[in-house]
Design goal:
This protein is α/β, with parallel strands linked by helices and 283 residues long. The mean pLDDT is 94. The chain is built from twelve helices and nine strands. Helix 1 (9-22) runs parallel beside helix 4, helix 2 (28-40) packs antiparallel against helix 4 (57-71) and helix 6 runs parallel beside helix 7. The strands form two sheets. The protein has a seven-stranded mixed beta sheet with strand order 5-4-3-6-7-9-8, sandwiched between helices. A two-stranded antiparallel ribbon has the order 1-2.
Amino acid sequence: MTPAAGPTVLTVLDDAVRRLREAGIEDPARDATTLMAHVLGTDRGGVVARRPDALDATHASSFHALIEERARRVPMQHLTGTVEFHGLTFKTSRAALIPRPETEDLVDAVLAAGLPDDAEVVDLGTGTGCIAIALAAARPGWTLTAVDLSDDALALAAENATRNGVAGRITFSRADFADVRVACDAVVSNPPYVSEDEWRGLAPEVRDHDPKAALVPGPSGNEAYAAIAPAAIELLKPGGLLALELGWKSETAVRGIVESAGFTSIGVRPDLRGIPRVLTARR
C-alpha cells in the first residue's frame, strides 16, 4: 500500500495561524508564513507555490516547534536566527539587542555628516555590531572601534563583521565607556534608554528576550547618556561628531546632558513617525 500523504502546507499553515492568533500575535499569517519559509529553505513566494504540497514529517515537526516558540512570544529574529539591517544580514541571539529599523536612522545620520574619507569612528555599546558594521560596509576608508562590556555580544559582533566582510577594519574592545582611549572623528551609540517603569510595560518579545542591560541603564533611562557624553568629549578630535539614538521621550534630557558636557551645534532628526530619534552634536 502507498502510505497516506501528510497534511498539505496550506493545512499546516492554517493551523499555525490559528495557534498564533490565540496567543495574541499581531500578524499571525505573516509570522507563520515566514517560519514555514525558514523551515523549507525558501522565501514567502516559495511557500505560496508549495501550499498544495504535502509537508513531510521532519519539516512538520520543525515547523510546529517554531510555532510553539513563537506562541510563547519568542521574537521572530531569534527563531530564524537573522535580521536584515541597512541592507545587510546579521546573526541574532539573546546575547544582544535585536537591531531595530529606527537605528538605521542613526547610521544614516553619521554617513551624512561629512566625516573624512579615512575617519576613525567609535561605536559605544555595539551589541550585534550592526552600527559599526553598517558604517564600515558603506565607507570602505573608515576604521572603527566597537566597544561593549559583554563578551558574548562582542563575539556575536565579531561573527557578524566576518559575515559581512568588514572584520579587518573593526577592532572589538571589551571596555567601559570611560576607559576607551581612541582619538576619533565620531562617537556613535544606541545606548540603553528605557526606564525601569517603561521596561515593565514592554512587549514580551522585548522584555523577556532582549538583555535587560541593553535596554535599561537605570531608573530614569538617561544614565547611559550621562556616561557617554563626558567620555565622548575626551575621545573626539576638535569638530568631531557625537551621534546618539534617542528614546521616545528623552530628547530634552539628552540635550541638557550633551550641552553640559561641552558639545555645540546640537541637532535632532525625527524618525518616520515624527519621534525625535537621533541627536547629533559637535565637539
